[in-house]
Design brief:
five-stranded parallel sheet; alpha/beta
């Protein structure tokens, strides 16, 4: 994933100025990354992911949500157990949205969006295969219900939303928030473990030679984000 520090993302600006807005999350916000296939490192542990990423994230943003297709991707017992605790605690910290919420006409519209979006992904609506299902179905549901913000750490939803005009996905009103932006925000809050937020950033964005060719190292990343966002974050 490429880190962009050239201009402020309007979606990121909006949600940090008003953290009570509805933001849908992709599954990779709950599933710890495993980059052992591209570098000689271990998979990032869920224990650390929960402590240094998920707990701070759910503390700061009060209207986080997932679509049922994303919930179905949380198959690991620890991950699913954590999500369930956030869903069923009082007050709930995580809302699951279901296709059963759609009216008959909305179901028809949702299927239209799914077909438009799926042709640019590895999801086949006829087979209902698992690959890219969570992203495609989440975005289609959001488009029908006119929810604006999707947060992910995956190139597919970024492309589907930002290139919606060219791809004709119908997602032109939607905006994407990326994980590195939220890592930066949590760092700036000063209430969390900044050392481990740096480690998470490096694991996700500055681990391989390819990462280092396109992405800034942590110190420069913070400097550049500060130039963009200092006036937006009032501490």
């Amino acid at each position: 994933m490429k880190v962009d520090t050239k201009e402020v993302n309007p979606a990121f600006q909006s949600i940090i100025q008003n953290p009570k807005q509805k933001v849908f999350l992709d599954a990779n916000f709950f599933i710890p990354p495993d980059r052992s296939g591209v570098a000689q490192v271990r998979a990032y542990s869920f224990t650390d992911f929960e402590k240094y990423w998920l707990v701070p994230l759910l503390n700061e943003f009060t209207e986080l949500a997932i679509h049922e297709s994303v919930y179905d991707e949380l198959v690991d017992a620890s991950i699913k157990g954590y999500a369930d605790k956030q869903i069923y605690c009082v007050p709930s910290k995580l809302k699951v949205h279901y296709d059963s919420e759609l009216s008959h006409s909305e179901v028809v519209l949702c299927n239209t969006y799914i077909n438009k979006i799926a042709i640019h992904s590895r999801y086949n609506p006829t087979r209902d295969n698992a690959k890219d299902r969570g992203e495609v179905k989440s975005l289609a549901f959001m488009a029908v219900k006119k929810f604006l913000y999707f947060a992910a750490n995956d190139a597919l939803p970024v492309r589907l939303i930002r290139d919606s005009g060219k791809l004709k996905t119908g997602l032109g009103d939607m905006q994407i928030v990326q994980m590195y932006e939220l890592i930066y925000y949590l760092y700036k809050m000063g209430s969390y473990d900044n050392r481990n937020l740096r480690i998470l950033y490096k694991y996700q964005y500055y681990l391989t030679a390819g990462d280092k060719r396109i992405n800034p190292e942590w110190g420069y990343f913070i400097e550049q984000m500060d130039l963009l966002c200092d006036e937006l974050i009032n501490l």
